Amino acid sequence: MTTKQRMLTGDRPTGRLHLGHYVGSIVNRRALQRAYESYFIIADLHMLTTKNSREEIAAAGARAREMVLDGLAAGLDPELSVFYLQSAIPEVAEINTLLQNLVTVPRLQRIPSLKDMARDAGKEEMPYGLLGYPVLQAADILCVKAHAVPVGKDNAAHVEVAREIARRFNALYGETFPVPELVPGEVPTLVGTDGQAKMSKSIGNVIYLSDSAEEVRRKVMAMYTDPNRVRADIPGRVEGNPVFVYHDAFNADRAEVADLKERYRAGRVGDVEVKTKLAAAINAFLEPMRERRAEYEARDGFVERLIVEGTERTRAVVRQTVHDMREAMGLNGIYAGFRRACGVPVG
């Protein structure tokens, strides 16, 4: 039996994973996977808060498979990783119900990312499920009694809600949950290729982990840069410039980055050279992922088995958590009392 603490993180199956996911949480998932018993959720119930058409639901399976492949390609070890499908564990809904009275509506309304999610999804009004997104996320974290949650900046406020709920549950009913710790990424938010917002699938300003070398080159050459620099001999701004944000995050040649910054500030290098070298750096960064992805993709049924086995393993853990919660709250005793009153054995 494992003595490791647990880690929980994951993504909604709304599309492929991108560089923003990598710097926000995947790099930490990879670094922490040996230290923790690692659970990775395919959060298809969360997907329903903004994408709930029959077409979106029908596409979730294929997207889930691609998402797991992205994680494996990025360095998650299948021997150390438990991938599971959220909707295949109905006990999570019960945990969500048991937790939802431990947080107030005004507390949830103060989370700015929920309004951003509604706006990005084209919702004029916030669905009830989206307002409760952090409570369901708390259920995800607490259902496996996770100690660590490596997530991006957008989810930091959600993890704080989970921490508050865990503390309130423990205070009301006795120590049942560890209070999960947020593990932030080194690059909190990666600006999109358009320079106007964070990298986001819904906006389309992304470089995917699975992009080909030519796709990366095309996207990089079209990237937003210093708008005031119309010629290469004009000194440019490096700070906040998306091209240099990406160089800092993904170019392993630090001397090259320093040289490009110096010449850019002095007006001695053009955007074409800066972007060409960035495309080469990102492709060098992604090439090992492409190779790993091809290896896993060639193993027929491998990803599907990972998901099925991981889901069954996780459901056993979650069932135990539901039992622990009901015992702590005293809920199990209510029906047991009625059974005893009727002379029905209590199992």
From TrEMBL:
Which GO terms fall under molecular function for this chain's record?
A: ATP binding; tryptophan-tRNA ligase activity
Matching SUPFAM superfamilies: Nucleotidylyl transferase (SSF52374)
Q: Which GO terms describe its biological process?
A: tryptophanyl-tRNA aminoacylation
Which Pfam family, giving just one, matches this sequence?
tRNA-synt_1b
EC identifiers of the protein: 6.1.1.2
- Give the InterPro entries listed for this entry: aa-tRNA-synth_I_CS (IPR001412), aa-tRNA-synth_Ic (IPR002305), Rossmann-like_a/b/a_fold (IPR014729), Trp-tRNA-ligase (IPR002306), Trp-tRNA_synthetase (IPR050203)
Xref: CDD domains: TrpRS_core
Q: Gene Ontology terms, cellular component aspect?
A: cytosol
> Carries keyword Membrane?
no
Q: Which reaction does it catalyse?
A: tRNA(Trp) + L-tryptophan + ATP = L-tryptophyl-tRNA(Trp) + AMP + diphosphate + H(+)
Q: Which UniProt keywords apply?
A: Aminoacyl-tRNA synthetase, ATP-binding, Ligase, Nucleotide-binding, Protein biosynthesis
Taxonomically, the superkingdom here is: Bacteria
Q: Which Gene3D superfamilies match?
A: HUPs (3.40.50.620), Tyrosyl-Transfer RNA Synthetase (1.10.240.10)
Q: Which family does it belong to?
A: Belongs to the class-I aminoacyl-tRNA synthetase family.
- Designated name of the protein: Tryptophan--tRNA ligase
